[in-house]
Amino acid sequence: MAFITIVLLLCSCFSYSATLLGSSSSLAPQTSPRTTQLARSASNIPLLIWHGLGDAYDSDGIQSVGQLYNNLYPSSLVYFVHLGESGGADRHASFFGNVTEQVEQVCDDIRKHVELSKVSAVNALGFSQGGVFLRGLVERCDAVDVRNLITFGSPHSGITQFAQCAQDDWWCKIWSGTLKGNTWSDLAQSSLVPAQYFRSSADIGDYLQYSNFLADVNNERERKSREYRDRISALKRFVMFKFQDEDVIQPPESSWFADYNVTSGLLTRLKERDLYKEEWLGLKKLDEAGGLEFRTTPGKHMQIQGGVLEDAFKRYFAVLDEKSDYNDVDASAERPSVEGLAQIVLRRFSVVNVA
Q1: Rounded CA separation 336/69 (Å)
Q2: Which residue among 21, 35, 187, 218 is the one 20 to 30 A from 234 at the CA level?
Q3: Coil, strand or helix: which one is 273?
Q4: What are phi and psi of 5, to 5 degrees?
Q5: Alpha helices, DSSP H only, in 141-213?
Q6: Residue 196's CB: how many other CB atoms inside 10 A?
């Protein structure tokens, strides 16, 4: 899960506060928590943000990421992907629901959005499972043209095991109990979100036959979608961040599209996979154009060190494709944050989640 916070002190509590250090500015959005904005110029590119498992669009942490983008690009629209009117409903939808239908809903919401429906391009930022879902949106949704896609700790090749739930996380325990022995059932594949990006070499046949979401958006079935391939290869940049001490996504290299054989322990990196060599998703074409990047950032799952998000925004989301001064910055390097923003820490809610 991606619970995102800016904090003075890290603690083991189950809730986190967002604070701008060195500034009296409030993190409250200027309008609805689903959209933050200042007076905009047509030159600025909107940002879509999709959070991870167990988080919500209106959480302080997610809102603070949008505020950071607004600090860097003051005339930009920030759209927080949401699957419920309230934060509680949105968090529930991160555990329960049909991901195929959820992506369709987000696409339809964008199509109906007064401003997003009129822009020529957007940037997209996905945390954990939200990164995989955003990629699915890129492939399937003709209502939006994503220019640059960044994902943090996102299981693009799926997960081979489900994480343990925290003692008091009952939502997690409900879906976890249902998943055991029923991963490929109609119930799991139509209503339990993590099951829909589960992928194991031990039962790859069942995965290809029954997977509701991942097998399709990874174009792994015999019938390939040319549309998926063309839309991914049309990205300007696709940047995948893997956490150095990843402790939730298994295997951690799934964040870089690697394949893991659970029987032999063999790890096959993306460029060695048929998915890449045979252009199932257009990743090879994108790579050869210089648009595919594999980045490592220190920390455990969703623990992002200070300056990393800001550097990523400046390097990959620069307005009007301006050449950034951050082209040689390493992801692990810390920089002073905008207007005194201190360390931005993305943390999962205890040990609950797979994404």
Answers
A1: 15
A2: 35
A3: coil
A4: -145, 150
A5: 170-179, 186-191, 204-210
A6: 26
